[in-house]
Specification:
The chain has 289 residues and is mainly β. The protein contains 1 helix and 25 strands. The chain is globular.
């Protein structure tokens, strides 16, 4: 029987559970426009039954994501220039989620959920090899590498998730806010990162300095939205239904529709942008008839 803290995070913040609808990962070229983006027709790069989700770009030509295989999820790598998918993990008795490249290392980190219920953050060599547990005493939900020594993460508690900054250099840990959601990102051209704060029944995107904990509200999220990403030009994106909404803190006062996909794409849940801002990964749950 899973602890209630695990169940809460699974149900509300994105780790898959039995009965969750299938998701697919799409890839589209994008071009910056004045006030928005032009998005080419998306290509389904997963085309796989089950849960294919949580994409991230370690570089402009590579996409990592969690992909269903044999009743579990392993980490897959998709090469944009070759159009080829390869497996990076194959973990009997466990599933991996939320892969991220570790700065200055030929390795990636991922959340591993074992069939025993143990959930921990691991490091894996990019080209194969044994994993290493990074935080043996913390149940990490989501994470962001600020640099190779500083990790921003959400830690599961009895009441939800707390925002913690871990410094591997001196092994210090600071909990800066209680009650947060998923979606952690560096803010372009700044020393800040963004996170989702859950306060008074509302979800808001906030910025934070990882050293001081100083934070500021950027904007409230649209109802039902849990995930965001940043364009290199400083525009915040989120998906709602089959639409991409945008908000630039320097120019906008509210969210605006900057692209609408066709109805066949389904419900968007996650977005990811490559470092140069030329490709967009979209996770969507197809409509069922």
């Amino acid at each position: 029987m899973l602890q209630w803290s695990m169940v809460w995070a699974v149900l509300f913040w994105g780790l898959p559970v039995m009965g969750q609808g299938p998701t697919e990962v799409y890839l589209a070229e994008i071009h910056a426009l004045e006030g928005g983006i032009a998005v080419a027709s998306p290509k389904n790069i997963s085309e796989n039954p089950g849960y294919d989700n949580q994409p991230s770009f370690p570089d402009d030509q590579t996409l990592l994501y969690a992909r269903t295989r044999n009743g579990q999820t392993d980490i897959a790598r998709y090469s944009l220039d070759k159009g080829k998918t390869t497996w990076l993990t194959d973990t009997p008795g466990g599933s991996e989620y939320s892969p991220l490249k570790i700065p200055e290392m030929d390795a990636f980190s991922t959340i591993r959920l074992d069939t025993s219920g143990l959930q921990r953050l691991y490091s894996y060599p990019m080209d194969g090899g044994d994993p290493e547990i990074l935080l043996p005493d913390l149940k990490v939900g989501y994470h962001l590498w600020y640099n190779k020594d500083l990790l921003v993460c959400t830690v599961l508690t009895d009441n939800g998730m707390d925002l913690m900054v871990v410094n591997f250099r001196d092994d210090s840990r600071y909990t800066f806010q209680k009650g947060v959601g998923r979606s952690l990102h560096r803010i372009p051209d700044s020393d800040l990162f963004s996170y989702i704060a859950l306060e008074e029944g509302m979800a808001a995107v906030k910025s934070m300095d990882p050293h001081s904990g100083t934070n500021k509200v950027i904007i409230q999220l649209p109802e039902g939205v849990q995930d965001v990403c940043w364009l290199p030009n400083g525009t915040l994106l989120c998906g709602k239904g089959n639409q991409i909404l945008g908000f630039n803190p320097e120019k906008d006062s509210h969210w605006r529709v900057i692209h609408a996909f066709g109805p066949n794409l389904g419900e968007i849940s996650r977005l990811a942008i490559n470092p140069s801002g030329t490709h967009l990964a979209v996770v969507a749950e197809p409509h069922t008839n």
